[in-house]
């Protein structure tokens, strides 16, 4: 019917304001006026988006009749809830390998194979077994694995090396391979009007939204933890730095030139302590972020159990005749 430009604008503005608040809250504080204004704008634009969609009818970016469909609504909800963990793992697992385990970028990419290779293989197998494997069972088993995998990874210990990551990545990959094809099939099949492109795009949009917001939360936790640890060490050493130099030190693990320049001002022993503290804080922040992401996915397990259970009860029973 047309492109819902007002809906796109309202949703985009709301998400940008929300992500900006999440990104800057660790530096400015949650009570800063700019953060409160950003959160207020995010809420305002998202409410405007909802109001717009209700008036837009069939041309809405998120058509109401589609979301009222239980199967589509389930897929969108579960995509939102699984996306934070998936996005966080894609971002932070390679960083763990490079910053804490000393992997090269190439080796870090290869190190992702238990998760991404498992995702590919299980997806293929679930497709081949589509006639025998229940989509609902695959959804439940998959999202359960997507909660367990990040939780296992949240307990990683640097001294354990790569082997401490492999099991969690493999469980996550299995979960992705089971969940992603099954939930997409469930959503597309649920729409009686056969709007496969619309439903598929809608479900994918919810995954992107959930991933963006969840990644903003995880990154805020990681950044706040690292910032607090570096600040505490500087305080214990009696060192006072200008804001620009303090911000540069927050980039210690990324190897930024500005961070190296600030480090040169310190005694080598203190500089090494700063690097060690930043590394430990980064690991602590990632662990805390992954635990939050695992809890969000666990909420998805509960949602899946409730909604799939209701759908099973609502399904008509077939009896044999004759």
Describe the SSE topology.
Layout: H1 5-28, H2 33-56, H3 64-67, H4 70-100, H5 105-111, H6 113-128, H7 135-153, H8 163-190, H9 196-236, H10 243-249, H11 257-263, H12 268-314
Helix pairs in contact: 1-2, 1-9, 4-5, 4-7, 4-8, 4-9, 4-12, 6-8, 7-8, 7-12, 8-9, 9-12, 10-11
Short description:
The chain has about 325 residues and is mostly helical. Helices cover about 80% and strands about 0% of the residues. It is flat and about 70 Å long.
Please characterize this protein's 3D structure:
This protein has helices at residues 5-28, 33-56, 64-67, 70-100, 105-111, 113-128, 135-153, 163-190, 196-236, 243-249, 257-263, 268-314. With 322 residues, it is mostly helical. It starts with a helix and ends in an 8-residue tail after the last helix.
List keywords for this structure.
single chain; 322 residues; mainly alpha; flat; 0% strand
Percentage of residues in DSSP E strands:
under 5%
How many helical stretches?
12
Helix content: over 70%
Low-confidence runs: 316-322
Shape: flat
Biggest beta-sheet profile: none
Order of helices and strands: HHHHHHHHHHHH
| Mean pLDDT over the full residue set | 87
Structural class: mainly alpha
What is the β-strand count?
A: 0
Distance between the termini: 49 Å
Rg, rounded, reads 23 Å
């Amino acid at each position: 019917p047309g492109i819902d430009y007002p809906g796109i604008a309202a949703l985009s503005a709301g998400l940008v304001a929300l992500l900006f608040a999440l990104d800057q809250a660790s530096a400015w504080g949650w009570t800063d006026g700019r953060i409160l204004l950003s959160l207020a704008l995010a809420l305002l634009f998202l409410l405007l988006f909802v109001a717009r969609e209700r008036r837009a009818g069939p041309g809405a970016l998120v058509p109401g009749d589609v979301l009222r469909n239980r199967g589509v609504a389930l897929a969108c909800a579960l995509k939102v809830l699984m996306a934070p963990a998936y996005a966080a793992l894609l971002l932070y697992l390679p960083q763990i390998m490079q910053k804490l385990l000393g992997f090269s970028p190439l080796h870090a990419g290869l190190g992702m194979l238990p998760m991404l290779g498992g995702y590919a293989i299980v997806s293929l197998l679930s497709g081949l077994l589509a006639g025998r494997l229940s989509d609902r069972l695959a959804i439940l088993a998959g999202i359960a694995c997507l909660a367990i995998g990040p939780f296992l990874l949240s307990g990683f210990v640097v001294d354990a090396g790569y082997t401490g990551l492999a099991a969690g990545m493999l469980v996550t990959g299995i979960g992705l391979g089971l969940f992603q094809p099954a939930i997409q099939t469930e959503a597309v099949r649920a729409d009686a009007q056969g709007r496969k492109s619309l439903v598929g795009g809608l479900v994918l949009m919810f995954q992107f939204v959930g991933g963006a917001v969840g990644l903003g939360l995880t990154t805020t936790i990681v950044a706040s933890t690292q910032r607090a640890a570096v600040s505490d060490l500087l305080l214990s050493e009696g060192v006072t730095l200008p804001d620009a130099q303090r911000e540069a030190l927050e980039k210690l693990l990324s190897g930024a030139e500005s961070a190296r320049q600030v480090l040169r001002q310190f005694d080598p022993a203190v500089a090494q302590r700063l690097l060690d503290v930043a590394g430990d804080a980064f690991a602590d922040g990632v662990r805390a972020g992954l635990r939050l992401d695992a809890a969000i996915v666990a909420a998805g397990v509960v949602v899946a159990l409730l909604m799939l259970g209701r759908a099973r009860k609502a399904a008509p029973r077939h009896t044999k005749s004759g």
